[in-house]
Structure to design on (638 residues):
C-alpha cells in the first residue's frame, strides 16, 4: 500500500524499509524473478528483517552566490540564479522518486519586496527523507547550484533538562553500593524534585529526590571509591550545590541543605519584591528612566515556549508551536523552562514582585522549537519572524559547525530588517554556529564575584583572571574573533514554569540581556526614528554598531573572549556618551585595520561539516568543569 507524505501526496512503497512488506521491490530491481523474489522474501521473513541504511531527513535548496548586495559591510549573499520552474522540477523529482519520501517545503513564503527591503522572496527549502547515497547523487546532479545537507537534530544540553538516571548498565553484573542523599530546603524541610548527580571515573549517576527529599543512587563499586563531584540541581527557587571530592558515606544518609535564592544578599526578599538581576544592574538598566520600556518593538524568542501562567510572562500574547503546528496554543507550554527563563530576562513584566525584564512593554513572540527541533524547523521559525515583521530574534542555541541552508535564511531575515542576537556557545572552545555567522551579533558570557554562594555550582565557572569590579570570563563560554560583546551569564535568576524562579548559567542567559537591550535601542534611540527607521540590513548593522559602541571593556582576557566588552544601556540608547577607546576600536574595525577593542573582522561565511545544535546553557552532569555539550551523532554535509 502506498504511503503519503506530510503534504498529502501519494508515495510509492519503500521496499528497502518495509514498503510492501515482503522486500520484493528491492529484489526485482536487482534482476531477480518474481518467483525467486518471493522465495527469497520468505527466507528473509524466516530469518528476520535485514539491517539496511535508514532514510534520513535532508534539506534541498537553491545555493546562493556570494557578492553583490552591500558586499563588504554585510558580506552579503546574493539570491541564487536558479529559475522557479527548475526548482519546482526538483520538487517533483523528489516526489516521484521511489526511494525518497517527500516531507514538504519550509522557509520563504513572503516576498521581501513587499517589505521594502529590495530583496526577492526566495523559493523555500525542500525537506525529504533519503539515503546518504541518493543525497550525494542529487548533490552531484545539482552541479554546484543545489544545496543538499542533513536536517540536523537540535540536541538539548541545558541545566534545566533532566538527564536519564545512569543507575544501571554501567558495569553489567558488577558489584554496586548504594548511597543515600537527602535534600533539604528552607527550615530543613524535605525538597522534592531536586536532581542529584555524582561523578567519577565512569559516567555520572543521577536520580531525582522523592517527596521526602531522598534519592538512592546505585554506584558501581569502582565509582564509589573515585567520586570526584556531587551536584544537586533544584527545580526552582534555590541555589544549586556542588562539592568537589565529596566525603560520601555508604552507611548513613548524606544530607545536602540548599539555600533559598532570597537568602543571598543581592536577592533579599525576592521574589516578594521586584528585583533587577545583577546582570541588568551591571548593564545599568536600573538607572534607565522608567518610561523607556521598549514600546512598539517586536521580539521573538526561538526556544522552548513560555509558561504564560507565570506572573512575569502573563502579558505574552503571540507565538507559534513550530513542532506541532496543530497545537495553536502549544507555545504557551514550556516543559523545559529554558524559553521562559530567556523571555523573562528580555521582557518580564514590571510588577511589584518578581524579576523585571529589559523591555517589559515590547511585544514578545514565542516560537517553540524545543524539545526535538531540527534545522528545517528553525528555518520555518525565522520565516514566521519575517512574516510578522519581528525586529529582534533571540537565539540561545548553537552548534559546532555551519548549516548553509540556515545561513541563507539568516541572511534573508537580515534583509527583512531582523536582528539576530545569538549565544556564542558553552563548549569552552571556538564560537559555535550560528553565532559564528557574520550576519548576527554573538554574545559571550561573564560572571561576577559575590553574586552566588561559594558552595553553588556557579563557583565552578570561575577563571583565574578577575578584574577590579569582580568580573571574570566564564570557563564554559566560547571565544574567538566572532565574539561581538559579552554579557552576564552566570547565576542569572529568572522565571521558570509554575510561577517559580531559578538561577542558571550559560551563554543562553547572556544573549537575552543583549536582546532586551536591542529592543530598548530600537524603541528609543533617535536613529531609529529618523535615518534608520526603514527596515533593511542597514538598520540591523546600525543597531549592532550602537550596541558595540556602548560597551565598556572588561579587563579579564583577550578581546576574543569578551569582544568590545559589556554593553551599557544608557550609552546604547544615547542618553550618555560612550568611551573614547571603544569609539576608536569601532573606527578601526570599520576601516578593516584590525581588532581595535573587539578583535579582528569576522571571516565570511564558509559552509563546513554540519553538526548538532543545542540551547546554550550548561550542566555539569554532561561534562563536569566546562559544561561541554553532547557529541553529535549526526553528520553529512555536501
Amino acid at each position: 500500500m502506498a504511503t503519503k507524505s506530510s503534504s498529502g501526496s501519494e508515495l510509492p512503497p519503500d521496499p528497502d524499509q518495509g514498503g510492501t512488506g515482503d522486500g520484493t521491490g528491492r529484489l526485482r530491481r536487482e534482476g531477480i524473478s518474481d518467483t525467486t523474489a518471493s522465495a527469497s522474501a520468505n527466507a528473509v521473513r524466516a530469518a528476520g528483517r535485514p539491517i539496511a541504511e535508514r532514510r534520513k531527513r535532508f534539506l534541498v535548496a537553491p545555493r546562493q552566490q556570494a557578492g553583490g548586495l552591500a558586499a563588504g559591510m554585510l558580506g552579503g549573499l546574493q539570491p541564487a540564479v536558479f529559475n522557479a520552474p527548475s526548482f519546482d522540477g526538483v520538487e517533483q523529482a523528489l516526489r516521484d522518486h521511489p526511494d525518497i519520501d517527500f516531507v514538504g517545503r519550509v522557509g520563504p513564503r513572503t516576498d521581501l519586496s513587499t517589505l521594502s527591503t529590495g530583496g526577492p522572496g526566495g523559493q523555500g527549502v525542500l525537506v525529504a527523507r533519503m539515503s546518504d547515497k541518493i543525497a550525494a547523487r542529487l548533490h552531484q546532479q545539482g552541479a554546484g547550484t543545489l544545496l543538499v545537507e542533513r536536517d540536523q537534530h537540535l540536541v538539548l544540553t541545558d541545566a534545566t533538562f533532566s538527564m536519564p538516571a545512569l543507575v544501571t548498565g554501567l558495569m553489567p553484573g558488577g558489584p554496586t553500593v548504594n548511597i543515600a542523599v537527602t535534600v533539604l530546603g528552607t527550615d530543613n524541610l524535605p525538597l522534592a524534585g531536586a536532581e542529584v548527580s555524582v561523578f567519577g571515573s565512569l559516567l555520572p549517576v543521577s536520580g531525582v529526590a522523592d517527596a521526602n527529599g531522598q534519592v538512592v543512587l546505585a554506584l558501581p563499586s569502582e565509582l564509589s571509591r573515585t567520586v570526584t563531584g556531587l551536584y544537586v540541581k533544584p527545580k526552582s527557587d534555590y541555589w544549586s550545590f556542588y562539592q568537589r571530592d565529596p566525603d560520601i558515606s555508604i552507611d548513613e544518609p548524606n544530607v545536602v541543605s540548599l539555600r533559598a535564592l532570597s537568602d543571598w544578599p543581592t536577592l533579599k526578599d525576592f521574589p516578594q519584591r521586584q528585583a533587577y538581576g545583577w546582570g541588568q544592574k551591571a548593564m545599568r538598566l536600573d538607572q534607565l528612566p522608567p518610561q523607556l520600556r521598549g514600546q512598539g518593538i517586536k521580539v521573538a524568542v526561538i526556544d522552548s515556549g513560555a509558561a504564560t501562567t507565570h506572573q512575569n510572562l502573563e502579558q505574552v500574547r503571540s507565538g507559534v508551536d513550530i513542532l506541532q503546528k496543530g497545537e495553536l496554543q502549544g507555545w504557551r507550554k514550556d516543559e523545559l523552562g529554558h524559553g521562559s527563563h530567556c523571555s523573562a530576562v528580555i521582557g518580564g513584566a514590571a510588577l511589584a514582585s518578581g524579576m523585571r525584564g529589559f523591555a517589559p512593554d515590547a511585544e514578545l513572540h514565542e516560537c517553540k522549537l524545543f524539545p526535538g527541533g531540527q534545522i528545517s524547523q528553525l528555518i520555518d521559525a525565522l520565516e514566521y519572524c519575517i512574516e510578522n515583521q519581528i525586529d529582534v530574534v533571540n537565539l540561545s542555541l548553537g552548534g559546532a559547525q555551519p548549516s548553509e541552508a540556515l545561513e541563507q535564511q539568516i541572511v534573508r531575515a537580515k534583509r527583512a530588517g531582523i536582528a539576530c542576537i545569538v549565544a556564542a556557545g558553552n563548549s569552552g572552545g571556538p564560537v559555535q554556529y550560528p553565532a559564528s555567522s557574520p550576519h548576527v551579533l554573538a554574545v559571550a558570557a561573564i560572571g561576577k564575584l559575590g553574586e552566588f554562594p561559594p558552595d553553588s555550582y556557579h563557583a565552578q565557572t570561575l577563571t583565574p583572571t578577575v578584574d577590579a569590579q569582580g568580573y571574570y570570563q566564564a570557563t564554559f563560554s566560547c571565544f574567538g574573533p566572532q565574539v561581538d560583546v559579552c554579557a552576564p551569564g552566570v547565576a542569572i535568576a529568572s522565571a521558570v514554569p509554575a510561577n517559580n524562579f531559578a538561577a542558571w548559567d550559560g551563554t543562553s542567559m547572556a544573549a537575552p540581556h543583549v536582546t532586551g537591550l536591542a529592543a530598548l535601542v530600537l524603541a528609543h534611540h533617535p536613529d531609529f526614528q529618523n535615518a534608520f527607521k526603514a527596515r533593511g540590513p542597514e538598520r540591523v548593522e546600525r543597531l549592532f554598531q550602537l550596541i558595540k559602541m556602548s560597551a565598556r571593556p572588561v579587563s579579564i582576557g583577550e578581546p576574543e573572549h569578551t569582544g568590545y566588552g559589556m554593553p551599557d544601556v544608557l550609552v546604547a540608547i544615547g542618553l550618555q556618551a560612550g568611551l573614547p577607546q571603544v569609539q576608536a576600536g569601532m573606527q578601526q574595525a570599520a576601516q578593516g585595520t584590525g581588532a581595535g577593542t573587539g578583535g579582528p573582522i569576522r571571516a565570511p561565511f564558509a559552509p563546513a561539516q554540519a553538526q548538532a545544535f543545542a540551547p546554550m546553557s550548561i550542566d555539569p552532569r554532561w561534562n563536569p568543569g566546562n559544561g561541554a555539550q553532547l557529541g553529535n551523532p549526526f553528520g553529512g554535509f555536501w
Remarks:
- Residues 116 and 218 are 63 Å apart (CA to CA).
